[in-house]
Structures are given as C-alpha cells and as structure tokens.
Design a protein that fits this description.
Layout (H helix, E strand, L loop, with lengths): L2 H21 L2 H7 L10 E3 L6 E2 L1 H13 L3 E14 L2 E13 L7 E16 L2 E11 L8
Parallel strand pairs: 1-6
Antiparallel strand pairs: 1-2, 3-4, 4-5, 5-6
Helix pairs in contact: 1-2
Organism: Actinomadura keratinilytica
Protein name: Nuclear transport factor 2 family protein
InterPro entries: NTF2-like_dom_sf (IPR032710), SnoaL-like (IPR037401)
Length: 143
C-alpha cells in the first residue's frame, strides 16, 4: 500500500469519527474505536472532562453526550496526519457549532477545539485508540 493511500485511509477514518458524532449514531461511533486487545487502553479526554479509560467507559460517555446533543456540526481545519507503521496520529482544529431546536436563537455554542487522535491499524483498518480534545481559549496567531 502506498504511503499516500495509507494517509488517505487514515484521514477518512478520522472524518468518520466526527461523522458518527454529528449523526448521533452510537453504532457508528462504536465501530470507530479500537476493541479486542486494545479495549482496555482506549482513552478519551472530552474538553473540560477528566480522562476516561477503557472502551466501555469511553462509549458510555459518547452515549451520554449524543443523548444530550440535539445538533452538532464540525468543520475540521489544520488537519495533519502522520502514519508510523501500525500507529498513526491526526491533529486538527475542530470548529464546532451546536444548536438546540426550539431555542430562541437556536444556537447554543460555537467554538474551537484542538484535537489529537491516535489510531492503530486493526485488520487493515484504522481504529481510534485515543482522542484528546482541548478548548482553544486564545486563538491569536503565534508571533
């Protein structure tokens, strides 16, 4: 497999993580995350949360978040993807828009999060092992 194809598949796997969240589809979200021998090492840090460890705990958090999110949209920018054999890292900026139906303006929040997503290759497919999102409090350009 060429390096470009490998990287493209990684970027697609990363995009599927966000698409599953936007769709509120826990089955899709579950399919994104690593399992089997990697299940105990699955780790997630949602913005403002403490670290969650273990596939079951991480997926419970996604079920809770999805059940309480009426609408969310991600526009990913600054996506950088690096493959290191059977592991890979994607960093990106999540530009997030959330809304609540029936609200006066409909918009609850818009903001940016910097994310690091660590993937492992399992059976030829990239599966998410670690997601760490941190809110961007000061988006000023570095000097």
């Amino acid at each position: 497999m060429s390096r470009a194809v490998d990287r493209d598949q990684l970027v697609e796997a990363n995009a599927e993580f966000y698409a599953a969240f936007e769709a509120g589809d826990l089955d899709r979200m579950s399919a994104v995350w690593a399992d089997g021998p990697y299940a105990s090492g699955v780790t997630c840090v949602h913005p403002g949360w403490t670290r969650l460890r273990g596939r079951d705990e991480v997926l419970r958090s996604w079920a809770l978040i999805m059940a309480n999110t009426e609408y969310i949209q991600f526009v990913l920018t600054d996506v950088e993807a690096d493959v290191y054999g059977e592991q890979a890292v994607v960093t990106c900026k999540e530009n997030v828009l959330t809304a609540e139906q029936g609200g006066e303006s409909g918009i609850l929040a818009a903001g940016s999060i910097v994310a690091t997503n660590v993937f492992v290759r399992v059976g030829g497919n990239w599966r998410l092992l670690v997601h760490h999102g941190s809110p961007i409090l000061n988006d000023a350009e570095e000097q």
